[in-house]
Design a protein that fits this description.
six-stranded mixed sheet, alpha/beta
């Protein structure tokens, strides 16, 4: 992309407008010497329009161009031939991997102490950034406050128990502990949604020396802010749970996705969307693995883990050569099971490492796609969140994802089904607010916007397993969420319905 075109795009965005894909192609077809004058008139025309204009498309740009030409003001402005190469192939990738540092495990009891102290310290800092929490006291200070005094106190939830219509919560910080009681219906409801080991703030009244009455529970949460946007109308596909190697891998559906990416199938408007997909994410469980659950061998089409990754590499190699692929591990992959997970080792997936377009990263990972920040996590912790939180179930995983955003942690509870590795720093704290938050694992598609964050619960590419049948979980396979990095529009393409 030329510097003149880059400057033009920047000016359009700074003026509060977005550029459609066909509008971008149109600008590329013009002589660069005309761009500066044209974009000035385009912005003037858009600002003066009686109709609200947010996106500048080809039609709008051409109308300004024609109007300018009639007035004799188009100097040397000619249109070139439209390029046959897809937009995503004509623009360089701008992929940044954030916080990709090695694990620092501490294999002792002290390791867990360091881990939870790190979590407490980091989330306490996030809480104190809130105007309504910055003056919160420690539990030690709360124990010294006189009876009937009111204050806010920060601590980690270590235990919850209900007694009649009341809820009792044990709260602790690095030095002390105290009991918090909730009695009114709304406060009890909010308290029941808290997860064990979650760090919170309590707006409290002191009832006894070691007992507080909760007026409200305050979560770290994510702040409201303007989302980051790409200058170029590129897209990212957020996939997960292919389970290659399983007899239930839906290779016909995934082949349709591959053919769609190569502009071979789909209606014209759908192919135009495919031409803008620059990044493909696979958020864990690329393969089905070996020995992940009892009697798994009976459900495998490929019983060698190395061969599973070879087939996976061959399938992903069919994606267009200009596409960048992100692969992180899930609980079925050949990586350690404890979070945070290291990348899938090269010894198992050599063919994937040899493909320069494939980026083998850990779980979770933060990346930027053309300036848009994405938090990508396989989502094993959703098992605990969805099963332990009242009002949640496995058919709506985005509700659990929203709870994790509010908690500012990807796997708060220790000792349930999600293994956590003791490290000197808790790298599962959500320190940076993303624009996109993706999880898989549940095999049920869903999406939701929360405080300008697009949450994506990715579909799977595997049919219903015997385990899912036993627990009455119906997956929604074959859905590819395509996210526009400029407009933040999310399009869910169902490849069960796309002929090919």
């Amino acid at each position: 992309m030329s510097e003149d075109l880059r400057t033009t795009l920047q000016r359009i965005i700074e003026s509060g407008y977005q550029l459609s894909a066909d509008g971008f192609e149109y600008l590329k077809s013009l002589e660069e010497v005309t761009l500066e004058g044209l974009v000035k008139r385009v912005i003037q025309r858009a600002n003066a329009s009686p109709e609200e204009i947010n996106v500048l498309d080809r039609g709008f740009l051409q109308s300004v161009m024609e109007e300018t030409a009639k007035r004799g003001e188009a100097r040397g402005l000619i249109t070139g031939k439209r390029r046959k190469r897809p937009l995503a192939g004509d623009v360089d990738a701008n992929l940044e991997v954030l916080e990709d540092h090695s694990a620092e495990p501490v294999a002792s009891v002290d390791g867990f102490i360091q881990y939870f102290r790190s979590r407490y310290r980091r989330i306490e800092g996030i809480l104190r950034e809130r105007m309504d929490v910055m003056n919160a006291v420690t539990i030690g200070r709360a124990l010294e406050e006189p009876l009937r005094s009111k204050f806010k106190v920060i601590g980690a939830v270590t235990r919850k128990r209900a007694r009649g219509n009341r809820l009792f919560i044990e709260l602790e910080d690095p030095e002390e502990s105290i009991t918090v009681m909730a009695s009114d219906q709304e406060t009890v409801r909010r308290g029941l949604a808290l997860l064990e080991d979650q760090v919170i703030c309590v707006d409290a009244l002191k009832y006894r020396k070691d007992l507080l009455i909760a007026k409200d529970f305050i979560l770290p949460d994510v702040p409201s802010r303007n989302p980051r946007r790409s200058e170029v109308p590129l897209c990212a596909a957020f996939l997960a749970d292919l389970h290659i190697g399983s007899k239930l891998f839906l290779d016909d559906l995934f082949d349709r996705f591959i053919r769609w990416m190569n502009l071979e199938i789909g209606p014209p408007e759908s192919r135009e969307l495919a031409a803008r997909v620059k990044y493909v994410v696979v958020a864990g469980d690329l393969v089905d693995g070996i020995g992940v659950y009892p009697d798994q061998l009976d459900e495998l089409a490929i019983t060698d883990i190395g061969r599973q990754y070879e087939v996976a590499a061959a399938i992903l190699s069919k994606l267009p050569e200009y596409v960048e692929v992100i692969v992180i591990p899930g609980n079925h992959d050949a990586a350690r099971k404890s979070l945070p997970q290291l990348p899938i080792p090269e010894e198992y997936a050599e063919a994937l490492y040899q493909d320069e377009r494939v980026h083998m990263l850990g779980n979770p990972i933060r990346v930027r796609f053309n300036g848009v920040e994405a938090l990508i996590c396989h989502g094993k912790a959703l098992d605990d969140v969805l099963s332990q939180t009242p009002g949640m179930d496995f058919h709506s995983p985005v509700k659990g994802m929203e709870l994790l955003l509010k908690a500012r942690h990807l796997a708060p509870t220790y000792g349930s089904s999600t293994p956590l590795a003791p490290e000197s720093e808790d790298r599962l704290v959500i320190t940076s607010v993303p624009d996109v938050f993706q999880m898989g694992h549940i095999h049920v598609y869903g999406s939701k916007r929360y405080k300008e964050i697009t949450m994506i619960a990715s579909s799977a590419w595997q049919g219903q397993t015997s385990f899912q049948k036993r627990v009455n979980l119906t997956p929604t396979p074959g859905i590819a969420p395509i996210f526009d990095l400029q407009t933040h529009q999310l399009m869910a393409l169902d490849f069960n319905r796309m002929s090919g």
